Amino acid sequence: MAEAHEAVAFQFTVGAEGNELEPTQFILDVYVPTHIRMYIYIVFISKGVSVNVSYDVFKALVYAGLHSWKLRCRRTMNSLYNSIYPGHPLRGIAWCGMIYVLNTKDRDPSNGLIDWLNSNIFSRYCAPDNSRTLACLVFGSGTYVVLIQIRQYILKKLFSYHGWMYQEHGKMSGIGPKVWGGLVKLFIGRNPSLYSYQSVLPTLPLPSLDDTLRRYLRTIRPLCDDTEYRRMEVLAEDFRRTIGKKLQRYLWLKWLISTNYVSDWWEKFVYLRGRSPIMVNSNFYGLDAAYIHPTTIQTARAANVVCAAFQYRSELDHQETKPLMVQKLIPLCSSQYERQFNTVRIAGKEADKIIHYSDSHHVAVYHKGRWFKVFMYYQNNLLQPCELQLQLDEIVRDTTPPDYGEEHLAALTAGERTLWAEARGKYFLSGVNRVSLEAIEKAAFVVILDDDEFDIGVKADDKYDTYANAILHGKAYNRWFDKSFSFVISKNGVVGLNVEHSWADAPISGQLYEYTISEDIMNFSYDEAGNTRG
């Protein structure tokens, strides 16, 4: 297997009775870029397990751990920054410095509170100069946090205003909307990170029981004749007088402790509990730029797109991506970005579940029935497109046939969810099958190097249906529908995006796709032969 799949050894082995066959020796041969090769030898012997790990493997693991810790530290710092937005730590330091300077000039801005803190608390444990400094620091920090909390509260109230929805796009007519818009611009702050506004967005309002029943009756009125409608009115009134009030209290408790009392139910009952195939009932797709075809080399296009996607992931991790804004005033919730990468939908017998991994350093590549695990980092640095293209070229040149069951494995993700869950529990809970499946599911995303060519452009209007069908479902067994998203690259370099729907709505994936296509064409670009630059 190691010789057959140079990017990674994947093996799916099922015995005649449905039992997995355990190998006596398993060799994992990984190509990171071409100038480093890593080996892990795991030999099962009669008295135990002998493990021999090369120095290069150990070094790669160290770099992976270092990358993960840096990412965690960055996320912690961003969380602290977002907690005081629209304030800023530097402005807080400047505020504390101003308080200290005023206090040393015998101008007490605290109305005696700093002196009280100094004499009753800090002077007992510190020298006089240090105790006064600490008192100024505590007072300055406390007042700055209070001011930020007031500003955040005002922003939340301003964002609760819905009158802007009825204004012409880009214009505010009337005194009320104009005053509201001016106040939003005054308090909203500058240079927000991706999650800066999460704490000031208003929660989804909870309608009263009477409002819910009134809206329900108004909704069903066109669907019922007079007799049926009167019957529904009686049932609605009976519900209001009996169990309705109790359920409303439970709903109020959920609203009280949730940022959105609907989202988890929507995800569970609309998506995850569905037992029908998600291939065409849930997943959606995105198409390539219609009139721009930068290269016809499949591996070059794939390398640029994949590197652009990882660059976008880095911006998400560092929260450098700006939140989506409506009319440049109203921020949209950014919570769905959290599960864009390193995410998979796991089939269950009654309901699926979404698993998000904190980080992933590889992509899963499918080509001619074979799965490859391609690492994207070397010495803690993201591979350049030209380096990645070399790895993909090796995959395309490899003529080794797929292992038994490997070519059509992804068909399990295209069928009924319960059947996939049963197969998963029977064949993929241990051994090589489990390790191989995890290599796909723990990937940042999936890359499909397709065997077909797609025609797009001015003269290919009648062929877009074929192109769209290929991106949406392909041959059913050559798409991994459970991953959060997959890039599909045709043999002539046309790209498409297949997205699993349950983790987010289309604008989130659309922003990723727009970014990758733009970076691919405008920044990364190609040389005269159509290969990646470098």
TrEMBL record:
Catalytic activity annotation: (R)-carnitine + hexadecanoyl-CoA = O-hexadecanoyl-(R)-carnitine + CoA
The answer to whether keyword S-adenosyl-L-methionine applies is no
Q: Which GO terms describe its biological process?
A: carnitine metabolic process; fatty acid metabolic process
Instruction: Domain (Carnitine O-palmitoyltransferase N-terminal): give its ranges.
Output: 1-22
Q: Which organism is it from?
A: Rotaria magnacalcarata
* The protein's name in its UniProt record: carnitine O-palmitoyltransferase
Sorted UniProt keywords: Acyltransferase, Fatty acid metabolism, Lipid metabolism, Membrane, Mitochondrion, Transferase, Transmembrane, Transmembrane helix, Transport
Its membrane topology: Multi-pass membrane protein
Instruction: Name the SUPFAM superfamilies on file.
Output: CoA-dependent acyltransferases
| GO molecular function, a single term | carnitine O-palmitoyltransferase activity
Which residues carry out catalysis? Answer: 501
**One Pfam family, short name:** Carn_acyltransf
Phylogenetic classification of the source organism = Eukaryota, Metazoa, Spiralia, Gnathifera, Rotifera
Pathways per UniProt:
Lipid metabolism; fatty acid beta-oxidation
One annotated Gene Ontology cellular component of this protein: mitochondrial membrane
Q: Which residues form the Choline/carnitine acyltransferase domain?
A: 204-519
Q: What is its EC number?
A: 2.3.1.21
Keyword Membrane in the entry? The reply is yes
Q: What family, per the record?
A: Belongs to the carnitine/choline acetyltransferase family.
Taxonomically, the superkingdom here is Eukaryota
Where does the protein end up? Membrane; Mitochondrion membrane
